[in-house]
């Protein structure tokens, strides 16, 4: 017998309607994800005509790389270039329009976003092999497992700084030649060429977009070689967008690209001799770190022989993360500057003070509130993320955008920030392996953590050093928002105590260390001619 | 026969507690209320990082325990309301990562038997439609996998179940297919990387889920004994990258096989004891888990027919 009366159909409908209603609500909650970082078309508040005179960092002068004078705007060759732009503008596809829109917010900010993505993509530690050891990423074979690079925080800090400094040097050189030759943009020379981006009176030769594409593509190919295809495509897009939008002619672009690549070569020469290639070290060198740390403790008046020193708590034990990164060349700081600003010693592992510190960590390990865990996770920036330096780039990008900076001033802001972050990385790593202080979970294995335990010594906290140095630079750049940056840095720093991976001393000394590091960059900035 | 088709099984699908009642072809009679507690113990050492099966010394064995309150009320013989609330606790045997615990998600389901073909005393064939809603009961974080207690999305699921039983011999077969729509979830961080790109937002799109539950066994004289299969396919999401942490919107797929026994005590037919186990035979971005369940259920009969 089939039981299916009208009555049951009605009941079904009565049920179905509320179910459908709920479904509609849920589906409407399931919206497209909106990216929080929206780039708007760049309309610089000022053009920074004198940027060619601002202090250089790596280059000796803005005209170290020569750029020949352009052809006259009345020449046939240039007129042919203008015709090519008009022709391109007549048949712009929607994909080409999207490319223009994508780059219209300014190359410095776009490349910064792209770079944060690259860092997150490559921020994966090598997996252990069957023998319980870890393979090393190989720059000669970047596509293999493990991929090259492992863009951990020090790697990333250095990478952000090289790209930012190269861009900044490139922009200052571009500005120098722009105002030397004063060739207007195609949309100014020829009224029938549309300006598909906000119009300015910035001279077009050499194209700043092409310079940015040239310096950035070379640096990124070096830093993230396995992403060469994507990087090259972005760079070509950026140059095409400059052409299609009526902003630059093909000779503006060719000159800019050549200038950018030449500057990149100078920066790369510095990068190849800055000590990074020795930052991983050898097993014998890792062993020697323990001997030198005992000497350092003894020199500080503590019995180095009885001091408990850091060991890897990963299973299987992993070699320390870039133990010789502290010897990598800094920006605007000498090795003596780094040594003179090193904090410490931390509380001895066998001291009463350390017992108190461990107890405090343990309390957070057991009793962290939901809000404290949220703070831990907000700032964790661990595996698979853009790292703490990337987080501070993320924060800075919004303020740079809202300040309507010219490309050269945006490049300056990101270069100042990233030089300070790199220096913080160098200083912090030098300090970490100087003392080799163990993590809380090493001294008390019952301490469980609310985030991954970093594979390097505790003292001082990398988050604290990075964050206070970044906040120092951003407070200089955007003094109105200084309170906010300092509050964020404090939160980033204390998150490591909440997460039960750092003692309070690591955080407090890391914060003051970072402040001192920032002052080197801020002092440079105050006299670089840009203020 | 006065078989009480009460029912709840918890299959702890790595993180999601789900009731078999929502997937089986058994119903509470009108005005009967079955309620009880079920304890599940789920553990795995090996897991699938994408399609690569591996272990990880930094977590060792991951154990998830949950205590679930479950209730099933018969509004009519053909319409049941089912609710569940789990308390979940996780723990890793190695490494430093802290386990988490807390009330997880409230699930409420409505199960309707909209079609029945009955051969009196011989066999029955039934079709069911199920609508279910689940939502987190607190703001636990889903961003600490594999030690988060859940995914924290609010879900709406629709399900169709078909049930056949040979009443004379006691054999039955059951098949149920569900589709779950999951809301976006919020992380505590402003950015994350998945699907090979970075997202500058704390909001994560959760792919929808298709699942199948198939069981067959014996059901007579107060005894239910079955073998079953559970499959879940997440319709989107990324694989866990090499040596990365799992992520909330990963493509979590699995196939599990299991057994279940439920027994109504002859001396006290309102009381049922339930035990089941399952083992993950295939997975992607989930643990190779072994799950054991034990539960006690009591049926209150509010109409004394």
What topology does this entry show?
The complex is a heterodimer of chains A (531) and B (305).
Chain A: E1 2-3, H1 6-29, H2 76-90, H3 94-104, H4 107-122, H5 153-181, H6 186-189, H7 208-223, H8 228-244, H9 250-271, H10 283-299, H11 335-340, H12 352-367, H13 370-379, H14 387-402, H15 407-435, H16 440-443, H17 462-477, H18 482-498, H19 504-526
Chain B: E1 10-13, E2 16-19, E3 32-44, E4 47-49, E5 52-54, E6 62-76, E7 79-92, E8 101-103, E9 105-119, E10 123-136, E11 155-166, E12 171-182, E13 185-186, E14 192-194, E15 197-199, E16 203-204, E17 209-220, E18 223-234, E19 253-264, E20 271-284, E21 290-301
What does this structure look like?
The complex is a heterodimer of chains A (531) and B (305). Chain A folds into 2 domains: 49-56 and 84-271, Vanadium-containing Chloroperoxidase, domain 2, CATH 1.10.606.20; 283-526, Vanadium-containing Chloroperoxidase, domain 2. In chain A, 58% of the residues lie in helices and 0% in strands. By secondary structure, chain A is mainly α. Chain A has 19 helices and 1 strand. Chain B has a single domain (10-301), classed as Porin (Beta Barrel), CATH 2.40.160.40. Chain B has a 12-stranded antiparallel barrel with strand order 3-6-7-9-10-11-12-17-18-19-20-21. In chain B, strands 1-2 form a two-stranded antiparallel sheet. A two-stranded antiparallel ribbon of chain B has the order 4-5. At the A-B interface, β1, α1, α4 and α13 of A face β9, β10, β11, β15 and β16 of B. β1 of chain A pairs antiparallel with β9 of chain B, so a sheet runs across the interface.
